Amino acid sequence: METVVSIKPLLAVSISLFGSLLIIAFGKRPNVRESCTFIIAFIKFGIIASMLPVVLGGQKIFYSLVEVLPGVGIAFRVDSLGLLFALVSSSLWIVTSVYSVGYMRPLKEHSQTRYFAFFALALSSAVGVAFSANLLTFYLFYEMLSLSTYALVTHHQDKEARSAGRKYLTYLMGTSIAFLLPAIVLTYIYTGTLNFSDHGILAGKAPDVILVVMFVLFIAGIGKAAIMPLHSWLPSAMVAPTPVSALLHAVAVVKVGVFSVLRICFHVFGINLMHLLSLDVFLLYFISITILVGSLFALKQDDLKARLAYSTVSQLSYIVMGGCLLSVIGVTGGVIHIVMHAFGKITLFFCAGAILVNTGLKKISDMKGIGKKMPITMAAFFFGSLSVIGIPPFGGFISKWYLALGTIDAHQIPILVVLLTSSLLNAAYFLPIAYNAFFSTGNHFNESTVVQEAPFLAVAPPVFTAFVSFLLFVYPGFFLELARMTAKAVLG
Fold first, then answer.
1. Residues 6 or more apart from 100 whose CB is under 8 A from it?
2. Of the candidates 200, 188, 171, which has an alpha carbon nearest to the alpha carbon of residue 262?
3. Based on CB atoms within 10 Å of each CB, which residue in 17, 116, 344, 433 is the most buried?
4. Smallest Cα–Cα separation from 395: which of 479, 474, 484, 473?
């Protein structure tokens, strides 16, 4: 496949690094500060989108910054998988920035300059992971993401936030240092390279036992994927402001986790080696536990953000499931689920934040009847729920349809049962929320309760993302094409 040399990947990564400095510089002028955020976000998205014609044309984009080890340096590589993730993260940064203004200002949150600055750093890190050409570049941006989002998780600076922050770093950086870094070192020792390749770099380079150990180290080292039992940092991180939760669950951290698992499976081990060592079957059944147990945990939660958090733990593993099916249709389903879940889940978090801004309520049991007072917000929540469950006409149906066909194509009927059971559990923990919001009456909301919709900037983003979830069903377009290109590249 032809490679085009361009500085655009570096610009896409570095523009929001520069933006964080501008945000700090104008910290005492909120309107200018937020304007800088939006300008940088649009420029970043524009740079990333400008690479779409090249990648859809079957080419890769490459840029080398500096060599650190023989044959290994800080370098960037834009392929269909990385571009898909970068498009999702950069576009949703714009929407989340709008929402952040509508959320942070009414609540008069402290340290808003720090918040927006670290938000920009986090997006640089996420896109850096997406565009990494090798494991060294990947690892540097992976750790940068952990550190930048730590400041967001601990935003409130109270005892609960500090405790959650310690757990956050312990799980994410602890696993990456203890497991991921040794796996990267072993990869270099056995192969002499860290560069990603469409067909992997480890085949025939080490004994099978060593390869299996390395695979376990890689998977255990990617704590951001929230695969059980390395998942409990995610619900704990819900102490952060809701826009941060949306960032963690739909845009940056957890999506970086499952994206990284796909990178390791596809571009370090390779599909053929995965199949030869039965690593695909092992991981497929291992993550099935996360899919089912995560859904059961979600069903038990009364705190809305906690329910969404456990739902994310479950839904993330759908993406890994698709990658492990080792068929074009299955891999396509897993990759496209990155997009579909992102827009559906961020809609739900936005709605949770709008409810909190407007009423101060966090418990689902306190939200009976709220749909009569906040109909737009709860309608958006309902539509986002349908997408995450996988019900047409919303985008989540497409990814789950491809995943279901992928399980049949791979003759993995037990995994199809897991997928269908999990989807039923999705409906069980989401649909009652919307039903009770519109058709029940609770202690907090009755005819005399004076409540109206949250501020416009807190309501418009979930309405927009819910509408995009619908559009992704009608016009999956280039996202679906990028997912298919990824599947064909790694399986071809």
1. 115, 116, 119, 243
2. 200
3. 344
4. 473
Determine the pLDDT at residue 237.
76
Q: pLDDT digits over 253-266, tens only?
A: 888 999 999 999 99
Residue predicted with more confidence, 444 or 387: 387
Task: Please give the structure tokens belonging to residue 483.
Answer: 């997912």
CB-neighbour burial class of residue 442 (10 A; exposed 0-12, middle 13-18, buried 19+)? middle
For range 405-414, the mean pLDDT? 94
pLDDT at 369: 87
HEC sequence for the chain: CCEEECCHHHHHHHHHHHHHHHHHHCCCCHHHHHHHHHHHHHHHHHHHHHCHHHHHCCCEEEEEEEEEECCEEEEEEECHHHHHHHHHHHHHHHHHHHHHHHHHHHHCCCCHHHHHHHHHHHHHHHHHHHCECEHHHHHHHHHHHHHHHHHHHCCCCCHHHHHHHHHHHHHHHHHHHHHHHHHHHHHHHHHCCCECCCCCCCCCCCCHHHHHHHHHHHHHHCHHHCCCCCCCHHHHHHHCCHHHHHHHHHHCHHHHHHHHHHHHHHHHHCHHHHHHCCHHHHHHHHHHHHHHHHHHHHHHCCEHHHHHHHHHHHHHHHHHHHHHCCCHHHHHHHHHHHHHHHHHHHHHHHHHHHHHHHHCCCEHHHCCCHHHCCHHHHHHHHHHHHHHHCCCCCCHHHHHHHHHHHHHHCCCHHHHHHHHHHHHHHHHHHHHHHHHHHHCCCCCCCCCCCCCCCCHHHHHHHHHHHHHHHHHHHCCHHHHHHHHHHHHHHHC
330, pLDDT greater than 90? yes
Q: Quote the longest CA-to-CA distance of the chain.
A: 72
Q: Give the bridge partners for 4, in sequence order.
A: 61
- Pairing state of beta strands 60-69 and 3-5? parallel
Is the per-residue pLDDT at 408 higher than 70? yes
For 102, the token pair is: 């509508």
* pLDDT exceeds 60 at position 30: yes
In the predicted model, is pLDDT for residue 492 greater than 70?
yes
Give me the sign of the Cα torsion angle 227, 320, 419, 433.
positive
Write down the domain spans for the chain.
Answer: 278-492
pLDDT at 448 over 60: no
Q: Is the pTM of this model over 0.90?
A: yes
Query: How far apart are alpha carbons 409 and 411 in whole angstroms?
Result: 6
Mean pLDDT of 28-46: 89
Burial label for 319, CB within 10 Å (0-12, 13-18, 19+), is buried
